[in-house]
């Protein structure tokens, strides 16, 4: 059930009142000049007292007002307020419902909203066409009988959300045969005005809502950053919730406005109580960064040990759906894959394709695709099936990382660069070019004292590791001092047996 609270969770009360006074100015002027108007007089204008629900009227053509009346909106009879509200646009009407309890109930009037609904969704109200004004009013009255308060407002919001989702679903229909991902993900993000927000929850239950400050659209992922001067104290925080926030009305020009009506879709919940050295992935002289799976980085100041920034890395696979199709309390569930068994799974997996990107702060260090990956039956380590993308023994497969590897960060006042950290985006397609496992996550390059058995390289050996419940990645790198660059000399992909069984509808443990 959609309520105003689901749409406006981040707009303070004083801003709501300000919007009522500023954006409702013309509508209230028009209402005030009606026969039943609040104030009388021709050629008059309406002025508003800032910070209060008050309307003043005075003669614009004289230095001294000939007549002046002061009327409090809060004290007006409901009939007059409903007439005033009937002149407001939908957005302003929704805002008014957040001012106070009385305005919420008045701004949810069924008779007012059934007219708005029928005008917005004419196909559903087509049975009203071709009738007189009197007959239309009569049918509108009948349509609200027996309906709970706010019924047609909820219907309007629900259908408006559905219409936005339908537009996005249409945009995302074309699939790139090479990546297995929608061709127009970036267009869908721009068209919808989709953004992201975090809710920081204190141990006392108090919540802090923050909309993203920066975002970067990569080839197969988006990097979203939050920074502020007024973070709550880290010691008081317990959890962080990540949401997609989508404008109720698709208007790219107004999508950047913080008070634009939006709905929330829960993406993930994170525990902030276990930030320790075991989760730290890098540091510089100003900040330390901590990784929370999946895909979240929390930067803490070195001196104060307080939050400096939060960074989320989100893969394009089902990104729009996860950011729009969930609710304020439930995440979007990816539809189950229909397995197509042909017997080949019994002999292992073959014909897989992996695309991998490594980047940090808009700079790409690696962008490569590996085709015809395979893993034979029984090639399982600790519940994960292993695929080799780059062989340690084959020098022709070894790849360099281009540029100085690191992760750029910034806040309102400072910025920095954390060496040997980056974001890895992995897109794995099965033999039918369907996305099998997709992930976007921060990683770090760590020194390895005892490298794997293989050729001896002239340089120190390092590694990159990532693992979750569905898959993982292990890479070994050699630092070449002469050219000051890393070379990937080994790259292995791991898929969990549980994920493979779920994908193919099997129950094998060793295939």
What does this structure look like?
- The protein has three domains: 105 residues, no CATH class; 140 residues, no CATH class; 161 residues, no CATH class.
- Strands 16, 17, 18, 23, 24, 25 and 26 form a seven-stranded antiparallel beta sheet that branches. A six-stranded antiparallel beta sheet has the order 6-7-13-12-11-10, with no helix packed on it.
- The chain starts with a helix and ends in a 7-residue tail after the last helix.
- The chain contains twelve helices and 26 strands.
- The protein has 511 residues and is an alpha+beta fold.
- Pfam families: F-box-like (PF12937).
- This is F-box only protein 15.
- It comes from Apodemus speciosus.
Give a concise summary.
This protein is α+β, with helices and mostly antiparallel strands. It contains 12 helices and 26 strands. Strands 16, 17, 18, 23, 24, 25 and 26 form a 7-stranded antiparallel beta sheet that branches. A 6-stranded antiparallel beta sheet has the order 6-7-13-12-11-10, with no helix packed on it. Strands 5-4-8-9 form a 4-stranded antiparallel beta sheet.
- Quantity of strands, as a count: 26
* Proportion of residues in extended strands: 35-45%
Shape descriptor reads globular
Rg over alpha carbons: 29 Å
Low-confidence runs of at least 5 consecutive residues? 1-5, 8-14, 34-70, 125-131
Helix count, DSSP H or I runs of 4 or more residues: 12
Q: Sheet with the most strands?
A: 7 strands, antiparallel
* Beginning-to-end CA distance, first to last residue: 46 Å
Summed over residues and divided by their number, the pLDDT gives a mean of 82
The tally of structural domains comes to 3
What structural class results from the helix and strand content?
A: alpha+beta
Helical coverage, percent range: 10-25%
